[in-house]
Amino acid sequence: MKVQWIITNVTFLALLLFVSSTPAVAQKKSPEQKPGYDKSKDVGANAPKGADVPFDGSQQSIKANWEMWPKSKMPITWSLVDNPDGNGKVLMTNGGKRWGTHDLVTKKKYTDFEGHVDFVMMGQRGDDKVEGYANSGVYLQNRYELQIESPKGKDAKDPYSWKIGPHGIGAFCMERVPDVNAWRPNGQWQSFHFLFTAARWEGDKVIEPARATVWWNGVKIHDNVQIKHANGGVAVGPSPEGLKLQEHGQDVRFRNIWIFDRSAKQKKDLKKPEKLEIRHSMLGYRDTLVFYLFKKQRLILVMSIDNKDETFPVTGQVHLFDQETSEEGLKKWINNQHSDGLFPDVPKPLTTKNLPKGFCKVTSFKQTGTSKNPGPRKATYKDFKLTFSISAQNIRKGFKIPAFSDTAGVHVESK
User: Fold this and answer.
1) CA 335 to each of CA 154, 280, 332, 338, 410: distance values in angstroms, whole numbers, following the listed order
2) What is the separation of C-alpha 356 from the centre of its chain, rounded to a whole number of angstroms?
3) Are residues 251 and 194 part of one domain?
4) Range 375-378, long-range pairs (CB < 8 A, 24+ positions)
5) Which of 94, 117, 330, 346 is at 20 to 30 A from 214, Cα to Cα?
6) What are the pLDDT digits (tens) for 135-168?
């Protein structure tokens, strides 16, 4: 009897210890406990000034800012329902049971943007219970799906240890798995926060794939990764597209949706190039070189105008320097390009990039007079004033050379 009593009580104590420790284990594995957790990118993140807020909890905002996909003329089937937390109204998937037939997409289309979506998985639709499987998605540019999915099978027993695959939550669906599992249970609000840069194109050719940085529940899970695969929605292409929420037949709800259009800000910031130096080469026997220094970027654009005849072909090169390079060092480098290496100690570019054909075009030219070179190579030259236009060109993440026009003097030897 005594032995049986001891065994029974030891078993009870062990069970009690296990039960009491379970919340602590879950707490330890929660997103807030992960390295690098950023509360400002978690649930409830505030929209920055100037951001679009396509859903504010009202039916009016749904009607004004959203349409159905793939048929925009379909009536909106999604529902406005009570927040499970009891605070205001939220948007609920509602429509077809087959994925991709009754999605909701913003009417406004975007190229580069920062955005945020809060979502909660409720499981089966129509009973307000959190048990059961839930699936949806957030489509960046209506192309690249950030998957929303609750675990199933053996993964549902310990979702904190879920090794998420290419179809699991936080993955760019069928392309890239998240770096970290930042799981919260069904019935709790979760979030995706994202920085998106669209693919860059030359005609029908991709010269730079789309890129995205994503935080799931305040934890960074994709860090400036390339994304190339369209998982439904619009095929990969150069067109701007909307932010889409997916209908998959289960109960998933959304709130705090906002999008900050970074393309508009870039256009505003890049009306003019930041020029510090413009230098022309010596008279006559060399091509005319025009230098543009973008000092914040530590980048030098060199335009070379061929002076062999009056066709004036123009080519361009970009030279990118280390951010620690001084402005004085950059000026010395420019001087050395047309002074036969006057300065022995100059910085070297990290990379040099030849710009594509057609990047710069001569739009007009006019002869302004003649000149004579009195040096060793005596010759007479026609003096021209050229106007040329430079088209916008992506150089690296966060910076592109804007489109602009300029003039330069060119000397062509009289034959």
Assistant:
1) 67, 10, 5, 6, 19
2) 23
3) yes
4) 377/284, 377/285
5) 94
6) 999 999 999 999 999 999 999 999 999 999 999 9
